[in-house]
Structures are given as C-alpha cells and as structure tokens.
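Hey, I'm writing a tutorial for new members on how sequence and structure tokens pair up, and I'd like a real worked example in the thread rather than a made-up one. If someone can provide the structure for the chain below, I'll link this post from the tutorial.
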Amino acid sequence: MLMNTLSSKCFSGAFERSALSVVLMLGVLLGQTLSADSMVAKPIHALMISGGCCHDYPNQNLILSEGISMRSNVEWTLVNQGGTSRDVKIPIYDNPDWIDGYDVVVHNECFGGVTDVDWLESIVEAHTNSGTPAVFIHCSLHSYRAADTDAWRSLMGARSTSHEGHRPLEVKNLRPNHPIMKTFPPVWQTPNGELYKIEKTWPDAIPLAKAFGKDTQKDHICIWINHLGNARVFTTTLGHHNETMQSPVYLDMVNRGLLWAVGKLESNGLPAIGYQAPSEKTIPSRRILAGDYSRGRIAIVDEKGKVEWEHAIRDIHDLHRLPNGNILFQTSWTKILEMTPAKEVVWSYDAAIANGNQARKVEVHAFQRLANGLTMIAESGPARIIEVDRNGVMHREIALHVDNRSPHRDTRMVRKLKNGNYLVCHEADNAVREYDMKGKVIWECHTGGEVYGAIRLGNGNTLIGNGSGHNVLEVNKEGQTVWSIEENELPGIQLAWVTTVEELPNGNFMIGNCHAGAENPQIIEVTRNKEVVWKFNNFEVFGNAMPCSKVF
C-alpha cells in the first residue's frame, strides 16, 4: 500500500510532499519496529524428549540443545525418561496437555518394545490436532515399531524396523536447493554411522538425502520432510554416535530442519529475522583454572585474562575444580591442598611424610577426589597408588608395574575409571596401563612418546595426550590407533608437549599444549573432524610451562 501511494501521480505538490513525509516517517517507524522485533523476538520454545535403550541420551541432549541454540534463537525443555529399557511408556505422554506451550517437539527416544496402540495414537494426535511440528532423530524411527498401528510412522512419513552395521556413511545431498540442504555438502562422509533400512515411505514424504547400504546393497533415505494433519515434520535417521551428532554439518542440518518445521527458515537457508542465535550465545563465557610452574602460580581467569583467584605454587602436574567449588591442587611434588574460593585450606596431604614415605624419595604427579570422599594419589618413587581419607589414613594400596623406575617419571596422569580400575600414564615407560583393583595389568598401550595424559572415552576407546610424541591418539581395546591429531595437523597450530585430554559433553576434545611457545595456544578445543572451535593463549598470567588446566 505504501509503494502504491508513493507511485501515484494524482497529488498536488504540497499534499504530495506532506504525504511523502508521512510515508517516510511510517517507513522509519516500521523499520525501527522490525529492528526491535528482531532483537527481542520470542525464542522458539522446544521440547526434547529422550530416553530408552542403546544411546547416550544425557550427552546427546546437551549436544543437540547447545548446538542448536548456538545457531538459532531456541530455548529448551529437556525431558529424559524411561531409563535404558525398550518397553517403557514414559509418563510425559500420560498428561493430555503434554504438548501445550511448545513450538516444536524433538523426539530422540528409543522404545521399540511399546505395544499400546491407543497410547501411541494419542501422541500422534497431539501433533496433528495442534499443528505442533515434530523433529525426529535417529532411533525415534524405530520407537514403537512393535505397536500394531502405522500412526507413528505415518507422522514421520517412513517405516524402518532394522539397521545395518556400524560404519561411516557417505550421505548424498538430493535437494541442494532446498532451504534445509542449502549448506549441506554434496557428499558428506560421516565420522561413524548406523544406516536405517527404509522399508516404506508415505506419499507426502520428500527425501532430502540418502546413503548407500553396504549390507542391503541399495540406497536408503536418511534425511526427509513430511506433513500430517496440521503438523510439519523433519526426520533424520543419522545420529547414533555422539561423534556424528557433534559434527557441525550434522548440527547445521538439524538446526535448519527444526527452523523449517516451525516456519522460521528463509529460502536461503538462514534463520528468519529475529530467530538468529543471540550474540551472547555464540561466544560462551568460559573460565580457566590452570597452573604454570614457570610462573609459580595456579589461577582462575576469565577468557580475557582477568585473574579471579590465584595461589602460589612451586610444582604442579594436576588440579581439579571440585563440585563444591573448591580447588584441589598441589603446591609441590609432595603437598596437596584443598582450598575454598576464599583461600581457606580445608584439607592437606604431604606424601613426603605420610604412609611410610619418610625415608624414601617420592613425587606426586596425579591425584583425584573420588565419589566416596577418598582421595586417590599416585606416588612416583614408591610406584604405587593409594586412596586416603580426610585424616590421611590409607584405605587402599596397589603396586604399579614400572620398567624404568624414576621418582620423577614413574607416572603422569592417573585416573580411577567408572569400573573401579586405574588408568595410569607411565612417562618413562612410554606406556599407558590399566590396572584392576588388585594391581594386575589388564590392558597396555605403548605410545612411542613420553606420555602424559589418558582418559577412557564413552565409546570404550582410550584418548591419549602423548607428551613428547607431539600428538593425540585414540586407541581401541586391541591397541590400534583409530584416530589421531598429529603435530602440525591443525592449521596454524603446532602441538608440542601434549598433556591433558578431556572429552566434553558435546563430543569435542579439550587438549593441553605445553611448552609450545607464545605463538601457540596452551589449550585447544577440537571436534572429531579436527576443527578448532576454541583456543586459549595467555602468556601474561601463565607461561610456557602450563601442563594442567580445567575449562568451565
């Protein structure tokens, strides 16, 4: 209407100028309104439902919710119910109003054994009657497959009751001009995969991508859209493994699928105005706890380097931020402190004078507060692991197998595993060994470097910070290296003495890079695709001897 008014030639000169002024003022006001709306648009309120067998749902909830909220203006309600069983009718669906108030529901559940037809059809009707869009992830396609109804499958637009073996998949983009697939590569090699065998598709389902099944020797769609009743639906069968789900390609794809489902995806594949991620979400604020013996300090700093807490040290190879906010750290090779943020010492232990060490050389390079309140301490020199209580009384002791004995190099990082065993890095032996609770070596890996750090990953493999090997190794149970980052593999970064390694809830890895010089980061966050997503470099507070850190 405004454009038509401006193009009219029927006004007198004075009236035309007056009308034009009014129109321009309206345009300015409208522009300001749009701008304000884009800044304060109500977030998309998404409900994610997860639970059931076969998947790491607690971490997948975080990977998906945090990954999507980094990309779009989405707020989440996360519901994980049903434990790890296949046949649980989770209670959220028992509330007839369970879907009310949500703009979209993300189904990431795996309950293939549920057979209650009426119960299942009521879930589908909640979507189709209300028009609330749905996003289906991976095993949701196999959920409720034992029920004698096609209601769930017709909502998704496809049926599958089995999958192929675990292997990386070559996913081909079938509709590169569709907004969901605009930035999806022509071919994407997934880090790992579990291809679902598609047995039937419904007429309104539109395939967006497919992958070839080596077991079935045919293609199966793995990304598609559908609609049923008043509900738009986006589905992908990809996402069994966390390493696939945390890939930027995967998160971009699911994010666009969600936006499409709620009608907030532009034709160019970008979020509609007002639905981009708020800028503060794209740069999360982090704090770094780190120790550097060249600077003689342990400190907590923000990302800009502002010191929030610090304490003097002489030597350090391990530290922890405890759940109560206290810091567990060492000030020398024998003395360990637990200190509050107010710098009150609430526990201390000196290995030089405790539990039989008075007459022998001992150094501590690793320790850990256990869930039962005991503190595990690895002692180099005596070559043992002990667990002590708050009074320093020893409750457990196991001897370590060390080929090249040295009070300074018997051990580096040591962690007690969930199964009760100990994962021990032996620097001088260039080896990582797993000990059972009686001290028997049940697994061993020689790394070719003076190894510093090792953790057991969620997939059962072991991630190793290989010290003087200048690399990070992922090793399977058979001792085979299945993934690595080499010294000069990350663009613009050189790995020097690789120390601590950590697996994050989103599937990324945090890597300590010590003795690398001021031109290299001291901490690196990297994806499984070896993309650097965050790095920390601070040679004002810390220096070139920062072997241990914790980002939170």
